[in-house]
Amino acid sequence: MQRRRACAALAPILSVLLGLLLVKGDTTEKYSALLLGNEVIPAVNTKASGTASLSFTEHVTTTGGEDRHEVRFWTGDYTITVANLTNVHTVEAHQAPRASNGELVYYFYGPNDNPTAVVNNGILVSGSIDKGQLRGPLRNKNVSDMRDRAHDGDLYVLVVTTQNPNGELRGQFEPA
């Protein structure tokens, strides 16, 4: 009996609390790039190769009781995998369409001023995009702006090594 009264008393409070915060769900978009030397401008002859993956998730939450307000924001995660690669200095994201060089917008890895000659095979780096580290035309922007570049086909990965300071591998992000 006391349990029923307690539940009945809590029901209106829980109803209000649930009305204040409603999670509508998340949407995820995935992009991938094949990293090759012949995609670098100018092309590079290398035995190295790799892949890059980006996953952007839009989070949507509704807050407020009667005055509901929708909050949207994007987060991003990445994984860069390589084979037969040595002396990695940086792994960068640049803003430009395929076959064009563009501005640096993010460092996935590095700069590493003391790269090693150890051959890298497997995941080189993975993590989450930090909007505070966006650069160039994306400086002081949001992760959603980087997602927009990938969505529009204007985002590529450039892997820079000691032996190829203009890039050893490159790949344009495309929908996965």
From TrEMBL:
Residues 29-175 form the CHRD domain. The keyword Kinase does not apply. Residues 1-25 form the signal peptide. Keywords: Signal. Pfam families: CHRD. This is CHRD domain-containing protein. It comes from Coccomyxa subellipsoidea (strain C-169) (Green microalga). The lineage of its organism: Eukaryota, Viridiplantae, Chlorophyta, core chlorophytes, Trebouxiophyceae.
